[in-house]
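Run: sequence + glycyl-adenosine-5'-phosphate -> complex structure.
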Amino acid sequence: MTETARVDMETIVSLSKRRGFVFQSSDIYGGLSSCWDYGPLGVELKRNIREAWWKAMVHERDDIVGLDSSILMHPQVWVASGHVGEFADPLVDCKVCRQRFRADDLAGDRCPSCAGELTEPRMFNLMFKTFMGPVEEEAAVVYLRPETAQGIFVNFQNVLNTTRKKLPFGIAQTGKSFRNEITTGNFVFRSREFEQMEMEFFVKPGSDEEWFEYWVRQRFEWYVNLGIKREHLRLRPHAQDELAHYAKGCYDIEYLFPMGWCELEGIANRGDFDLVQHVKHSGKELSYFDDETQQRFMPYIIEPSAGVDRSFLAFLLDAYEEEALEKEKRVVLRFHPALAPVKVAVLPLSRNEKLVPVAKKVHSLIRGGFVTQYDDSQSIGRRYRRQDEAGTPFCVTIDFQTLDDHEVTIRDRDSLKQVRLPIGMLPAFLEAKLGGESFEILP
Ligand code: GAP
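>> structure
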């Protein structure tokens, strides 16, 4: 497809709602701004993204282990990390219409909405506060974590002691983070509750630049391997004045969203900032002892930090295609099979009493190995369209010929090619196609 023919955000938002990828949060109460609920198809896609990341980061490597730390942490963590002091945006209020804006987003000194007079900028911390304990006034203030990374840093020694890992090694974690963003929008691109996939890679100082470049390359290729078109991705180094307070260097992997090039993932060289800060504030020893050189030092950290929701949006946008067929237009989501929410649809030609038991048998034969959907409503053509819109790689159809020859028709989502196959061969066929490099039915 050409650049101009690419899908716009409205089309994706409407498809998401219509097909059950994403709903507005608290919809029946008028919605809650910038919060989203993932529906039956969306939750599968999101799980698949998270699992593909975990597989590439943890299961397929010997040098990275996993962690699941709690969302609420000791408040001193956020003092040490710099979030209490530095994680703030400059805010201005319009004295006339009362709307609030980020000062650094505004071109002039008048309200962009009503041209009213604006207040002086005030710093606004982006962390959500809550109270721990039964009586609000006496309870301790705690924060909802604004990143999952700090849970990894404060567990560095625990993981080191229990796994006996040697440098270089990493700790990976996925989970919810919360930021009271001032400007949200563009669907799930920027919200106040979102999910991150972060990995902190601990290295010897001096080898950090090399590992930094390694992780930038690895992460870029992860998106390409899962089907994002290379020309829709680019790398952007951060300028010196743009770097976060903890970073020595940073690259953004950007995706060409409908609103332009925007950050999908950041890869930062955090140096020894975080461990040094936690030593200072906790008084605990967090350095590393190198058996070989008999030296103790503070590791440097390389951090690839991705957003599940942003990846979700990018994978959805990139998979979307409208195709003109002979009589109609079809909408198809060309997801990589590892990401497709449903892998196989089982479709009896009709609800005929002879076809249904065979279709149910076929369904039970494959559902243990693949996420499947059984659908016997409406015409077969309409059911194919529904599966195309869900991005299901294969449809298996049971027709009257099946009753005679025990063969089913398998239809390929992308090429629309069809083959007939004995029922008994179906599991092995699907396994080979969905688990391999090429999943086209007749490559
Ligand atoms: N630990 C480093 C860190 O959190 P970040 O660049 O602030 O770095 C990393 O966030 C990733 O988390 C972003 O690239 C993005 O994918 C995701 N992310 C951050 N804020 C988000 C928000 N408000 N809504 C959705 N995703 C967000």
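>> summary
The chain has 13 helices and 23 strands. The chain has two domains: 9-74+143-316, 342-434.
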